[in-house]
Write a structure and sequence with these properties.
The chain folds into four domains: about 90 residues, Roll (Phage tail proteins - horseshoe like beta roll fold), CATH 2.30.300.10; about 100 residues, 3-Layer(bab) Sandwich (Phage tail protein beta-alpha-beta fold); about 90 residues, Beta Barrel (Elongation Factor Tu (Ef-tu), domain 3), CATH 2.40.30; about 55 residues. It is about 15% helix and about 40% strand. It has six helices and 21 strands.
Length: about 375
């Protein structure tokens, strides 16, 4: 087993200047699809001189970025949000979240005429890109996220008024949830550029991010249990079922724009009626609201099945050979899924929605994959 080397780089959030490389311990970090993953690490002050590392000024919460380098490849990047000292252990604990979290704290309150953002028949990915550009165009608002030129071919209408105080992340997230016809996946990935400088890249994928599983592909991701995983958990959650969705759009009650979708096939087959609402205060398009409602029903029609599989980073599939969004074949045989003959007790293709890594300075790296149902694809 090859030696794995982690480096933890702390940088100024606005200038991206590297301020320090710190010898952290107990590190864990998570990459999450369409959301901001988390980071935690510790440093023992008893083992080093704080003055030598200048921890006070190089790890200021809210103005410091963290990059995680694994064997020369950036595998995580985000913002340091908290720093906590424990006098009993003489240790500092750092926590952070991926760069998407910055745009949760930025509001769409444009300062130039016409004082609102209006998009008519614009590609949904172009809107997402423009929102990031607008957020980064004001003084103190540019954290250096590089925006691409991806398109989806799906044109939508969107209007954002300053009095809504909607944050940029929510605006992009709402668009991404529009189901199988519209919608997309997004994340801010990190990598080194040609000069070895860490960069932040907005990645937009339509309709979905990741590699599609194919049995004929020799590089397809497969996990067997018993096998490489140390353990797994399997959660089936019926509390999130929805077969009828009312999507409430812009306006004031009782004259809001309203979208609606109900899967009557589901209820006629013996399922109870489950109704929920979803709020989209920036949507003035009834057709789009109907599409958003349909997308939510498609995602929540049946009990949500989430699995977590824990496996060492160096076993097949090795860490680095997959990313969030990739599809993976899971094959289980145990007391929960006993076999009735030859073969596995349960075989299913799932999608990786989160990757949690424990760096394991004094023990093998442990990776926990969170999986979810495949996205709905219309016939």
């Amino acid at each position: 087993m090859a030696t794995t080397v982690y480096r933890y780089l702390f940088a100024d959030l606005l200038t991206n200047q590297i301020l320090a490389e710190l010898p952290l311990t107990g590190v864990s970090f998570t990459q999450v699809l369409n959301a901001a993953g988390t980071f935690q690490g510790h440093i023992m002050l008893s083992d080093l001189s704080e003055a030598g590392y200048d921890l006070t000024n190089t790890t200021i919460p809210g103005r410091t970025a963290i990059y995680v380098d694994r064997n020369g490849v950036l595998v995580w990047g985000g913002i340091l949000w908290t720093r906590q000292y424990d006098s009993a252990t003489q240790s500092l604990t750092f926590t952070g979240r991926e760069f998407e979290s910055y745009f949760e704290k930025r509001l769409i309150v444009t300062e130039k005429a016409p004082y609102y953002l209006n998009y008519v028949a614009v590609d949904q990915l172009t809107i997402a890109q423009d929102l990031i550009n607008v957020a980064q165009s004001v003084t103190g608002g540019n954290i250096g996220v590089v925006v691409g030129t991806e398109t989806s071919g799906k044109l939508i209408n969107r209007t954002f008024y300053p009095y809504q105080y909607k944050d940029y992340f929510s605006a992009i997230s709402d668009m991404s949830k529009a189901g199988s016809t519209f919608g997309f996946d997004f994340n801010i990935d990190v990598q080194y550029d040609s000069t070895g400088t860490p960069t932040k890249l907005l990645r937009l994928d339509y309709p979905y991010r990741g590699k599609v599983y194919s049995a004929s592909d020799p590089s397809a991701l497969v996990i067997d249990f018993p096998g490489s995983p140390e353990k797994y958990t399997w959660m089936e959650n019926g509390a999130l079922i929805a077969n009828t969705v009312y999507a409430v759009g812009a306006g004031s009650a009782p004259s809001n724009y309203l979208g609606y979708y109900a899967d009557t096939t589901h209820t006629s087959s013996g399922w109870p009626l489950y109704e929920v609402t979803a709020n989209y205060s920036d949507v003035y398009d009834t057709n789009l609201l109907n599409t958003l409602a349909q997308g939510q029903v498609q995602a929540q029609l049946n009990p949500v099945v989430n699995g977590q599989i824990a496996l060492p980073a160096y076993v097949d599939p090795v860490l680095g050979s997959y990313r969030t969004g990739d599809q993976i074949l899971l094959r289980f045989t145990d007391d929960r899924f006993p076999t009735t003959g030859s073969g596995f007790g349960y075989t299913v293709v799932k999608r990786i929605t989160a990757i949690n890594v424990q760096a394991g300075e004094n023990s093998p790296e442990l990776v926990t994959l969170t999986t979810a149902d495949l996205p709905f694809v219309p016939a």
